[in-house]
Design goal:
The structure is a single chain. The protein is an alpha+beta fold. The strands form four sheets. Strands 1, 2, 9, 10, 11, 12, 19 and 20 form an eight-stranded mixed β-sheet that branches. Strands 13, 15, 16, 17 and 18 form a five-stranded antiparallel β-sheet that branches. A four-stranded mixed β-sheet has the order 6-7-5-14, with helices on one face. A hairpin with a 4-residue loop joins strand 10 and strand 11. Helix 1 packs parallel to helix 5, helix 1 packs parallel to helix 8 and helix 2 crosses helix 8.
């Protein structure tokens, strides 16, 4: 007999969304996280941007879920008062090649019915005097920013109001599937690292692996060796800006230069303060979270391409996050989200490589996982 109908591993924004959706009429749902609070990994160490869905192949899961999730997020913000700002974004081109890239983005946006428009350079200085774009500017008016903490608090409230149980300081250290009864036995180690650890073995009908940076390791506990996944960690450092000038009213993105990230961009918090990042640095550990002050010169050089008047002395290392990647620095091309039922393991749903636009897609991912259990 199962102790719970569903186990959700990982209480980041995606795990919370999945848990909140499944808890509505789905029996007894347990959500566990190895940390002492919800959302302390990728979910609290990102740009907090609501993306429009421009950067990925039109038929990809990332695009589909980003577009769907964006609409769901804005609706939820309006209905329950989650702090957000629909500030819009400019993507700026400095070279002919970058202008061609923006033209391809515009064509893709038309195919997907995403609102975008080119801003005439003759008008750009009147709108954003501090921004430099030598070739072209593509405006994405549906891009915004959100309080990720408020969103996660809202999702946790929905989950608990539906009868769900949350266990923090609880790490998964083993998973076994018994095909004779169709149940998963999961070893859970509960403890804060100071007062000892209690080990429990609980049985579940279904398991969702939404462990973020640890998702490949959890998957590898259960799946056969030939289906193991290697985790890779692309660190991104953010830099705060302490001066009152220059200022912008919207997000400013350069054209991406590689597959690992979207370039060192200018984002705003809900108070209007500027920050720059994330850059890309491949690291060997998901715990390497000290922002890289040594990269300040590189960040300054990238930012001054589109915001030439910034004061370098006002740039300070702020915080870092890790992108939970399943392809490494030598991989070329696009890597999609992995959201799937695993063959041979009924009731086990794997969520792998949920990096950007994971925050934007979170509510849509919750719906997708719910649908997987009903098809």
């Amino acid at each position: 007999m199962a102790d719970f109908s569903h186990l959700i591993i990982g209480a980041g924004v995606v795990g919370l969304s999945v848990a909140a959706r499944l808890a509505r009429g789905r029996g007894a749902v347990l959500l566990v996280d190895r940390h002492s609070a919800i959302g302390t990994e990728t979910s609290s160490r990102n740009s907090e941007v609501i993306h429009a869905g421009l950067y990925y192949p039109p038929d990809s899961l990332k695009t589909k879920l980003c577009i769907m999730g964006k609409e769901m997020l804005y609706k939820a913000c309006e209905e329950v008062g989650i702090p957000y700002r629909n500030c819009g974004k400019w993507i700026v081109a400095q070279t002919e090649a970058e202008q061609e890239y923006l033209e391809s983005l515009q064509e893709k946006a038309h195919q997907l019915e995403i609102a975008t428009e080119f801003v005439p350079l003759s008008r750009a200085k009147d709108i954003e005097p501090a921004v430099t774009a030598r070739r072209a500017i593509l405006s994405s008016p549906t891009t915004g920013i959100i309080s990720s903490h408020s969103l996660m608090t809202y999702l946790l409230g929905k989950f608990e109001a539906s009868g769900g149980d949350l266990a923090l300081n609880t790490a998964v250290s083993g998973i076994e599937f018994d095909s004779s009864c169709g149940l998963y036995t999961v070893q859970l180690d509960n403890g804060d690292g100071e007062n000892g650890t209690a080990t429990m073995h609980l049985k579940f009908e279904n398991v969702v692996n939404s462990a973020g940076l640890a998702a490949p390791l959890v998957s590898n506990m259960l799946l056969p060796r030939e289906r193991h996944v290697t985790p890779y960690y692309a660190k991104g450092s953010y830099f705060s800006y302490g001066s009152s000038q220059p200022r912008t009213q919207r997000l400013i993105y350069p054209c991406p230069t590689g597959h690992a990230g979207l370039g060192t961009h200018l984002t705003l918090d809900l108070g209007g303060r500027l920050r720059f990042g994330p850059n890309v640095q491949w690291v060997s550990s998901p715990d390497d979270l000290v922002p890289e002050g040594s990269q300040l010169e590189e960040v300054y050089a990238e930012v001054t391409r589109y915001l030439p008047q910034i004061d370098k002395s006002s740039l300070l290392p702020d915080y870092s996050g890790i992108r939970p990647k399943i392809t490494g620095p030598d991989h070329e091309g696009f890597t999609d989200f992995v959201i799937r039922k695993e063959e041979g393991f009924p009731g086990f749903v794997n969520l792998l490589g949920i990096e950007s636009p994971g925050l934007t897609s979170s509510l849509a991912i919750g719906e997708m996982v719910y649908d997987l259990y009903n098809t």
